[in-house]
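Run: sequence + nicotinamide-adenine-dinucleotide -> complex structure.
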Amino acid sequence: MRILLTGGAGFIGSHTCVELLDAGFEVTIVDNLSNSSETALKRVEEITGKKVSFHKCDILDRDSLKKIFDSEKIDSVIHFAGLKAVGESNEIPLKYFLNNVAGTVVLCEVMAEVGVKNLVFSSSATVYGDPKSVPITEDFPLSATNPYGRSKLMIEEILQDLYKSDNDWNIAMLRYFNPVGAHHSGRIGEDPNGIPNNLLPYIAQVAVGKLKELSIFGNDYNTSDGTGVRDYIHVVDLALGHIKAIDKLKTNPGLVTYNLGTGNGCSVLEMLKAFEKACEKEIPHRFAPRREGDAESCYADSSFAEKELNWKAEKTIDDMCKDMWKWQKNNPDGYK
Ligand code: NAD
Ligand code: UDP
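>> structure
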């Protein structure tokens, strides 16, 4: 069975590609390489000993997309492609709406045209905005605090309308919490452009000596140690969640939504300590003011995914830091 991955050369896509190939699926990748490198796919092939069919193509390019669907027998699509930098989305919101929202509309139009109606969509815990309490279940109120989050919310609503209009679709919307870590081989991992915005890539670059010190945004939150709490999930656990979602689509579930997290909250200071243990050095850090728009505490109730998908994140914070460090140490400049 062949699965098409949009954005499959990226961080989560490349790890999902490994797990799909290992599980016996065939994989086609459509990626414009705007935030990734073809080297990641070469390494996926090296890790798995299997080939992927790669097309350098923008999902907004309807004609090329249609040709790919016409030339390969696709069963289902996992739609990772998107821009994901919250700060940047405030600067260039239209680019985010064009790429993420319009890109998804074009993809779905082409899928409908060729009769491929199984879709897994990369949504995000950002659709919960600033949650009123934790842990977060799928029925919590939704809101957006920036254009990136709004693009995810809009896509979720578009997919709901699409499903209402045509019940032949099977759509799994996966709300990821905070994906981190890397493949245990140390050959693929996250390769952010410029200075990372996210905590773990930032810590890893301080540890490897590329950045001077970590700024901890806020130590006066109402949490165990005053720093922000998130639900970090190992990218390989997340990747395995996609395989379970593909299996689920085979049962004709209609439109379904799942939180993919571990269910455990971890503070910035706890994460820092775990990383120091993994890299066996002290990481210089200082406290800084809160970052605007940051939620205090955000972690999942993932029991719905556990029950319906028979999936549960297995890896610990120590696993995440160990694998992340191996990747960072072996590839200080990412894929460059
Ligand atoms: P990533 O940037 O590493 O991967 C996205 C991939 O999509 C990149 O390879 C990029 O080149 C490609 N892409 C972007 N626009 C495209 C277009 N128009 N046409 C073709 N390819 C395009 O990001 P990631 O961390 O792997 O995230 C994958 C998905 O998961 C994204 O939709 C993201 O919003 C979502 N998500 C990520 C996180 C996270 O923290 N990493 C959290 C929640 C949700
Ligand atoms: N954070 C931090 N310093 C950084 C980056 C992040 O203290 O350089 C904190 C941030 O305030 C939040 C947590 O780490 O409490 C996770 O931030 P990240 O950007 O990785 O994820 P998100 O906030 O989008 O869930």
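>> summary
The mean pLDDT is 98. Residues 6-7, 9-13, 31-36, 58-60, 80-84, 99, 103, 122, 124, 176, 178-179 surround nicotinamide-adenine-dinucleotide (ligand 1) (CB under 6 Å).
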